[in-house]
Amino acid sequence: MKFSNDFIFGGATAAYQCEGATKEDGKGLVCWDVYYKETDGYNPDPASDFYHKYKEDIDNCVKFGINGIRVSIAWTRIFPKGYGEINELGVKHYHELFKYAIENGVEPLVTLHHFDTPYELNKNGDFTNREVQNYFIEYAKFCLNEFSEVTHWATFNEIWPWSVNQYITGTFPPGEKYQYNKTVECIHGMLYSHAVIVNYFNDNNINGEIGVIHSLESHYPYKKDDPSSVEAANRVDAIANGLALEASFEGKYSQETLGRVNHILVTNGFEEFNPDPSDIEEMKRACDRIDFLGINSYSAHWHKDYEGENFHHHNGTGDRGTFKSALKGMSEEIKPEGLPRTDWDWIIYPQGLYDMIMRVSEYENCKKIYITENGMGIKEELNENNTVEDDQRIEYVKDHLEVVLKANENGANVRGYYLWSLMDMFSWSNGYNKRYGFFFVDFDTQKRYPKKSAYWFKNLSETKELK
Ligand code: BGP
């Protein structure tokens, strides 16, 4: 089985996780800047110092056959407050970054929002607030016009995780727990903003392609023949995947999905979700105008019914077996015995990615798919040869690419794969010891060292053959 000649072999990054330089060149405050301070969290400086070292990272892409790079624009480098005055130094920086990538044949796929809402706007309700949505839309319009050298745009990265972690698990700023109503409002506010931007892009004939990157992981019943487990899995799927897929590809929410989401809301004492019909109109107009879907997928999940009190413990330390999540009206997540998992309790299950690719391919408006994030977080150290023998990662990536090939054979249209992450960077709620990169970053010296997986990927990108 071989990949086509135009398949993208990419690496993914996100501005806040790799750039560092959080106070440089006029950058405004991001919600995480304050959240990490207040919670004694991780220092986002210098991260992987990508703000200064992007040329070296792009040179590494060239050396290792990586022909695509996912980057995001930091909203507060362009509009330090999120709106109003433009910061020319930020604009200049991204022009330089895109130019260098394009000149070197490393095609940038640029995300407009990757978890880094400006501080004030996050405090004021993030995407639950129409004013914040409108500021984001203005920022997006500015970028689409200004950075005309970019031809691959994604509106958002992971609408569900961004919303659920702000308002249900409390692991992202503002760190609130079990606010199911805000979660659903945030999801909808982002899906609506996405639609407005896609319509603007098309109405103004902006050059290139535009899509959205969703976290899409498969949810299964803990016991296949237990109807309450089946329904629990379906409920989680409805809020995590159903809302996003239906809005993006059908411009509506189905009654079935709304029914399940409303069950979750009402069980937790909130009112039912009633989207504004004019928002739905906007989404309708956008649903056949997106050019690609980005799938981020790492794991799969098993569920059983749960109506008890809400409880969520995040395993952010890599101590295997400490994850626990039981969400009222939604599900209790069960980690089945016998399946491999990472130290952070993420089950490794490539079939989940296969099932998801085949499922989204059923949508008439799903024209093209990129796997925009997939990868394995590992605690790693450099060995005496100044490299990392990351055979586990190679195996993980190989198993996932195998199902990509199989899906394409069975009619799907996956055109690229971006490893999370290009080089090591810090993880939002797990810190610096959860490494994902092809390149080991010594965070003290900022030196990069190719891991064994980088050499393996180079061979793959050259031969197109999965071995
Ligand atoms: C996705 C995010 C990435 C990245 C990745 C790995 O949800 O889009 O930014 O962080 O997950 O997750 P983690 O850092 O929690 O291990």
Automatic annotation (TrEMBL):
One of its GO terms (cellular component) is cytosol. GO terms for biological process: lactose catabolic process via tagatose-6-phosphate. Gene3D superfamilies: Glycosidases (3.20.20.80). It catalyses: a 6-phospho-beta-D-galactoside + H2O = D-galactose 6-phosphate + an alcohol. The keyword Hydrolase applies. Pathway: Carbohydrate metabolism; lactose degradation; D-galactose 6-phosphate and beta-D-glucose from lactose 6-phosphate: step 1/1. Its EC number is 3.2.1.85. Keywords: Glycosidase, Hydrolase. It comes from the Bacteria. The keyword NAD does not apply. The active site is at residue 373. Pfam families: Glyco_hydro_1 (PF00232). GO terms for molecular function: 6-phospho-beta-galactosidase activity; beta-glucosidase activity. Belongs to the glycosyl hydrolase 1 family. This is 6-phospho-beta-galactosidase.
